[in-house]
Amino acid sequence: MSERGVAIFGAGVVGGMRARTVARQPGLRLRGVADVDLDRARQVAGAAAGDVRAVADYRELLDDSSVDVVIVSSPVHLHEEMALAAVSHGKHLLVEKPLSNSVKSCRAILDAVDASDRVLTVGFNHRYYPSFRFLKGIVSDGSLGRIDHVRAFGGHEGMSQFRAPWMYERATLGGGAMMDVGIHVSDLVQYLGFHASDVHAVATNGVWNVPGSEDNAIVLARTADGVPITYQATWTEWKGYRLRVEVYGERGMALAHYPPLLNLIWRRVGAEGRRERSWELYPYINVRERLRGWQVTAQDAFAAELADFVRRLDGGPADCATGLDGLRAVAFAEAATRSSSTGVPAQVEA
Fold it and tell me: 0.90 exceeded by the pTM?
């Protein structure tokens, strides 16, 4: 397999983590890092082995023939501009979540990719957290029987988690809690195979009072075949960052949680409905994260996602999110916003 060169647009926390992941992935080599803060770009580039260019203007890397893949880790409102430029120069793409800050912008990216022979993956790394992969296996093997409903939750404590206005302002992010932490939950639900067709939502923003960016979105959604989904995305989860998805079927239920990583499974046994409970716990990962921080778990997920992306580039099967997955997650958020503003259900336009 020939070596592929990678450029990273955006040298913030996630961009730096992506750079470290590229350095460990066989068949990839970091060729360039772009950030408007040139010192930050130099710091990320300097931590990589070999000759890595650091530039303030990402366009300087587009004509580099050694760059085959672009990872877009910039603020969300720059995703469309950078993605379109990269595709027009023949680069494959990995774009961080959310794909962009509106359905219209996401469609522009997908149209450009569809018109090329390039590959697009959206960075939904929580697909690679062990508890959610385990839940995917339970749902896929049919052991829960006919699925009755799904519950999903994602939240954190709000403004203390943000380092810059683009991370929470509607003009740049495209929304509030739904487009931030909620976008992961939206993708995890569709990763499990549940694609919402319509939603009825209520949103509030009376805590942080960011115009147009909801603190909370509480959503009742439904798939095309009638499976209901209850969903909350919040910036007022005072206990700290949490993701949780529960799937209920006619023969039992299964739950995935992070942090800590864990799974709980209940199964009905026998005609009398006796219940059996089991757990999947991840003590090594959870203790390591407790001691060293969330980054170690995220870094492992980035590595698994990037390896999957390389398999997709090579024509193999992969679970990494497609451009359509990215569009659907943003469309879900936009539908919830429309429903909340009108008081009536809204269709998910994807």
Answer: yes
